[in-house]
Design brief:
By secondary structure, the chain is mainly α. The protein has a domain of about 80 residues. Helices cover about 60% and strands about 10% of the residues. It has a two-stranded antiparallel ribbon with strand order 1-2. β1 and β2 form a beta hairpin. The longest helix is centred in the middle third of the chain and has 34 residues. The chain is rod-shaped and about 80 Å long. The two termini are about 25 Å apart. This is SYPL2 protein. Pfam families: MARVEL. It is a multi-pass membrane protein.
Length: about 130
């Protein structure tokens, strides 16, 4: 929800400041990714209880292993979809928060004698790793 993040920038004509808001809401892919991770964890815990506590029921019933296999396949497919969606969402966040695009959106930086530069480039290493997982 980048549109909720305000940036205060100075105004060259007066002593006041101007508020700039980022554009974009990239929360849906991240929420889908996290929700699927939570459901996967809960299913894994339930399956672990079934395997360890009710092993005889799992061994005797032929439909239970097949149902477990189908559920696991569904989770694998949705995990692939969620990782792709989160990867796209992350690239959109990077594009929206790129220092060069932020400086281009600031009217104060378009003056003839004005030199604007970003202080630091944001570190996205951990976010990139979350997509690879």
């Amino acid at each position: 929800r980048l549109y909720q993040i305000p940036f205060e920038m100075p105004d060259c004509e007066s002593e006041s400041s101007h508020t700039l808001h980022l554009i974009g809401d990239f929360s849906a892919p991240a929420e889908f990714f996290v929700t699927l991770g939570v459901f996967s964890f809960l299913y894994t815990m339930a399956a672990l209880v079934l395997y360890l506590r009710f092993h005889s029921l799992y061994a005797e019933n032929k439909k239970l292993p097949f149902a477990d296999f189908c559920i696991t396949l569904c989770f694998a497919f949705f995990w692939l979809v969620a990782a792709a969606a989160w990867g796209k969402g992350l690239s959109d966040v990077k594009a929206a928060t790129r220092p060069s695009s932020l400086l281009a959106a600031m009217a104060v930086c378009h003056g003839p004698d004005v030199i604007c530069s970003a202080g630091t480039t944001p570190a996205m290493g951990l976010a990139n790793i979350s997509v690879v997982r």
